[in-house]
Automatic annotation (TrEMBL):
<dbReference type="InterPro" id="IPR038765">
    <property type="entry name" value="Papain-like_cys_pep_sf"/>
</dbReference>
<feature type="domain" description="Transglutaminase-like">
    <location>
        <begin position="331"/>
        <end position="393"/>
    </location>
</feature>
<dbReference type="Pfam" id="PF01841">
    <property type="entry name" value="Transglut_core"/>
</dbReference>
<protein>
    <submittedName>
        <fullName>Transglutaminase domain-containing protein</fullName>
    </submittedName>
</protein>
<dbReference type="InterPro" id="IPR002931">
    <property type="entry name" value="Transglutaminase-like"/>
</dbReference>
């Protein structure tokens, strides 16, 4: 399925799709609607271009779902945490760009998560909260006993894949009652892991609802389990899958002085260079890279500098990725970014500097109740090969250098991978637009009448740690 901004040249006589993308990004929705209507009247329009125009109309609808607050709405939500909030305070934070907003057809609208993001972005706002509460972050974002376990076992054994965890995962989708007419077939895709030697292995399917299902081939880079089920009037439609797998922690000991520029093979060349629309070497990005990298020539030290620079971009709840025409550019300009946005920005910067970089994502969890969707990546450094990186967990505040730098070269064993790349086709193929055009963590749903967006269904993820068998094998290979 086409992505935003993927098609540049339309049929003769209509506004190029690239120009429609720019109108939508500029908030000129009425102008974009008129241009789309004009383009779709052409009888010579190819199916590919027709879908691209129609997606821009859908993108506008999704943007309006994200930017659903007026100034009064946003201020009222902030006031729930700061009862004595003044108009001047709100205006000051707004003018500083701490409350994400967009002008759409002359009307200023605020991102629905802007009020909660404010407390992530502003220490002053956090200090004004009447009832401060900690953010619900992963316990592994700070120095943790598991990090020390990974480092110690890697040193003791000399292996790079260590400290495994066995986990049972249940993931589900619940389509809201009457989201489609009764009797219509709902098609659902739920993420499903693929075996990655040395990272996640021994995947065992346990159960599903409905029982009939289709698991995509293990070669599928965004792997799913697929279901069909008829809708019943006034009842939600439920889908779920349960499986078990073993996940390994990762550690590579790097000597920076031994790192040399990569001589790219055809396989590595796939992970270098631009990949529009989200990995583009814009002039702003080139300038940012020059300022960060300076005269450094060593690839590892370049990667460290870029990792630290992106890590300094504060995390905040994100817009839906399908609404963003260039995610790495957005992360560079917005003043904040979430995990996938930070990862794509870092990947783009690494590639610009001749360092291969690739995507991974899935869910993270813990020994307790914490779980969340998460994105990260890998970079390639010669002569060491592929190394893990999680710029969102970033550089930890720790007195020990190995712990401080853990997430540039090491991983915990509390993350399941669903995606070994982004924006990849499903098996079986989706017939309509995807709700998430980049990632695959919640799932996807459609019927013959079209895609069912996230507002039409709910999702859940549960991870339960299991005892590791006494005779559990060591990892078969390094990733």
């Amino acid at each position: 399925m086409l992505l935003a901004g993927a098609i540049a040249s339309p049929a003769y006589g209509s506004t190029p799709v690239s120009a429609i993308v720019q109108l939508v990004d500029a908030g000129a929705f009425n102008d974009a609607e008129r241009a789309i209507d004009d383009a779709l009247r052409s009888s010579s329009l190819s199916l590919e271009h027709r879908q691209a125009y129609e997606f821009e109309r859908e993108r506008m609808r999704r943007i309006l779902l994200d930017f659903s607050l007026t100034a009064a709405d946003a201020q009222a939500r902030v006031r729930k945490q700061i009862p004595d909030l003044t108009d001047e305070e709100f205006a000051t934070w707004d003018a500083a760009g701490l409350l994400e907003s967009r002008v759409i057809d002359g009307k200023k609208l605020y991102f629905k998560r802007a009020p909660s993001n404010l407390f992530r972005l502003s220490a002053e706002a956090r200090g004004r909260r009447a009832n401060p509460a900690p953010f619900n972050d992963s316990p592994l974002e700070k120095p943790h006993a598991h990090h020390r376990e990974v480092l110690a076992e890697a040193k003791r054994t000399g292996r790079g894949a260590v400290a495994p965890r066995r986990v049972r995962i249940t993931q589900s989708i619940s389509v809201k009652a009457d989201a489609v007419p009764a009797g219509e077939t709902i098609r659902a895709w739920i993420p499903y892991p693929r075996a990655i030697p040395g990272q996640q292995e021994n995947i065992q399917f346990i159960d599903s609802r409905p029982a009939k299902h289709q698991i995509a081939p293990e070669s599928t880079l965004q792997r799913t389990v697929y279901f069909e089920q008829a809708a019943v009037a006034a009842q939600p439609t439920q889908f779920s899958v349960t499986y078990e797998l073993t996940i390994y922690g990762q550690h590579r000991q790097i000597d920076p002085d031994k790192v040399v520029p990569v001589n790219p093979s055809p396989d590595l060349a796939l992970h270098l260079g631009e990949r529009p629309p989200h990995i583009v070497f814009t002039e702003d990005l080139r300038k940012f890279s020059r300022e960060v990298v300076g005269d450094e020539k060593n690839p590892y030290r370049i990667a460290q500098k870029l990792f630290d620079a992106v890590d300094r971009i504060p995390w905040a709840g994100a817009l839906e990725y399908s609404t963003i025409s260039n995610i790495s550019d957005y992360a560079l300009r917005a003043g904040h970014a979430d995990c996938g946005q930070q990862t794509l920005l870092l990947m783009t910067l690494l590639r610009l500097n001749g360092i291969p970089a690739r995507w991974q994502s899935g869910w993270i969890f813990s020994d307790g109740a914490y779980n969340n969707m998460h994105d990260w990546g890998w970079l390639y450094l010669a002569p060491y090969g592929w190394l893990p990186m999680d710029v969102t967990f970033g550089r930890m505040q720790a007195g020990e250098p190995a712990l401080q730098n853990f997430y540039l070269g090491s991983f915990d064993a509390y993350r399941v991978v669903f995606n070994d790349d982004y924006s990849q086709p499903f098996v079986p193929a989706k017939q309509h637009f995807r709700s998430e055009t980049v990632d695959l963590q919640r799932g996807e749903v459609e019927w013959r009448g079209g895609n069912l967006y996230f507002d039409r269904w709910d999702y859940d993820f549960k991870a339960t740690l299991l005892p590791l068998p006494r005779d559990a094998p060591t990892a078969t290979a390094l990733p």
